[in-house]
Specification:
Blueprint: H1 15-25, E1 32-36, E2 49-50, E3 60-61, E4 65-68, E5 78-86, E6 99-103, E7 115-118, E8 122-125, E9 128-131, E10 141-142, E11 153-155, H2 163-171, E12 176-180, E13 184-190, E14 194-195, E15 206-207, H3 209-220, E16 224-231, H4 235-248, E17 251-255, H5 266-273, E18 275-279, E19 283-284, E20 290-294, E21 297-302, H6 306-324, E22 336-340, E23 351-360, E24 366-370, H7 380-384, E25 387-391, E26 402-407, H8 408-411
Parallel strand pairs: 5-6, 13-16, 13-17, 14-15, 17-21, 19-23, 22-24
Antiparallel strand pairs: 1-12, 2-11, 3-10, 4-6, 4-7, 5-9, 8-9, 18-20, 20-21, 22-26, 23-24, 23-25, 25-26
Length: 413
């Protein structure tokens, strides 16, 4: 049975209910690794990061100019003798009364100075500088600890580390961070019609694209994929593959074999080996999504059609994996609203995730267009798109309506 079938059995779960169920079953890994800060991109912090020092560690200049004591200058400005030069990386002498220090961005403020005057409002004449504007205490000064205080929590456990987090850790002198270990995910594809790229195609055969899609999706999330290849369409072979996968990985992902056809063996195999808690969602594409456990190992089975696989992984497997990795907070993809540049005249009984492209219109405002094909077998439509347009159940749209759009940047990281 195709996952694009229009029938609506009562057993179909709404998307929100299904995602809530999956996330309630996700058990984060607990093992940890110390990794070099420069190698921690995409890892999940395992314990809070506490600052060992004030940042900045001393008052410093926010720009190139002259460090002064504002009390030495009349209200409208005046002239001061330039007694020293303080470049970044050096420390000046205490500022004598009636003098200024030539100072550069990032350099420590000399003792006795309380302001920095930008060089653009100063006139230099030999050893003297004339300041042509009023000066206030604290002007152009970055105060000690104004960014971070020693002993304060900088990042919480469960933070997914991006480039900005690595830079922050490095600014605290941390050469290593403690993160959760990588998640090991076993993947296999079900179907006698599948062959691997590089082999010749016999009549009725197609290349196994799903393995490569899944492998890439998992790598983008920082997982270690374990490929079990192609599993033949039989109950015994499917049970053997599931048992092996459950014994070697933290999570098992299968593509194909989860519908109700005579050659769909994944669902009965999971029920034979373990438990099945979820099957069939009120979405399109991707209705026959399966979730359960084989022993203590969670299992997610997606439809074999490549677009259905991509959509169900993005909307369900990705948040589940993020929670298993230890990420705290909201793990569902964020969306934005834009103007529809298409008509959707037929209301559906399932929520549709249409392959869509967000682009700026002639007036600079964002417009969403959708691919001409709704087939879940047209993988090229996913490479055309840069996101998914969300068409609610029982809704029609006309050009100019507001439409919810989920960018791929929210689904692939």
């Amino acid at each position: 049975m195709s996952d694009d079938c229009c029938s609506a059995p009562a057993a179909m779960r709404p998307m929100e209910e299904a995602l809530e169920l999956l996330l309630s079953r996700a058990r984060p890994v607990t093992d940890t690794d110390w990794v070099d800060t420069g190698q921690a991109l995409g890892r999940v912090l395992a314990r809070p990061l506490v600052s060992p020092l004030d940042v900045p560690p001393w008052d410093n200049s926010a720009m190139d100019g002259y460090a002064v004591n504002s009390a030495d200058l009349p209200r409208g400005g005046g002239a001061l003798r330039v007694a020293q030069r303080v470049p970044a990386g050096a420390r000046g002498q205490p500022l004598e009364t009636g003098t200024a220090a030539r100072i550069f961005t990032g350099a420590p403020l000399p003792e006795g100075a309380d302001a920095v005057v930008m060089q653009e409002v100063c006139a230099r004449d030999g050893d003297w500088v004339r300041i042509e504007a009023p000066v206030s205490p604290g002007e152009n000064v970055r105060s000690r600890g104004e960014d971070l205080r020693a002993g304060g929590r900088v990042l919480e456990a469960g933070t997914l580390l991006g480039p900005q987090h690595l830079g922050l850790a490095a600014s605290l002198g941390m050469s290593r961070v403690l993160v959760y270990r990588r998640l090991k995910v076993a993947i296999f594809s079900s179907g006698d019609e599948l062959v691997m790229p590089g082999q010749g195609l016999a009549p009725g055969q197609i290349y196994n694209s799903n393995q490569f899609t899944l492998h890439g999706l998992l790598q983008s999330l920082g997982c270690d994929p374990l490929s079990l290849g192609i599993v033949e369409d039989s109950l015994d072979a499917t049970c053997a593959a599931l048992a092996r996968a459950a014994g070697e990985a933290d999570l098992v992902l299968a593509s194909g074999g989860v519908s109700v056809g005579e050659e769909d063996h994944v669902k009965p195999a999971v029920e034979k080996l373990g438990t099945l808690e979820l099957w069939q969602l009120a979405i399109r594409p991707g209705k026959p999504l399966a979730f359960g456990h084989i022993g203590n190992t969670p299992f997610i089975g997606s439809p074999g059609n490549p677009v259905s696989l991509f959509v169900t992984f993005s909307l369900f497997a990705r948040p589940f994996i993020r929670r298993m990795q230890g990420v705290v907070g909201d793990v569902a993809p964020r969306s934005l609203w834009a103007t529809a540049d298409f008509d959707w005249p037929r209301a559906g009984i399932r929520r549709e995730f249409a392959r869509a492209r967000l682009e700026n219109g002639d007036d600079g405002q964002p417009l969403v267009s959708v691919h001409t094909s709704r087939s879940s077998g047209v993988l090229s439509s996913v490479t055309w798109a840069n996101g998914l347009a969300v068409i609610p159940e029982n809704r029609t749209l006309v050009r100019g309506d507001r439409v919810q759009f989920i960018p791929f940047s929210e689904l692939l990281t």
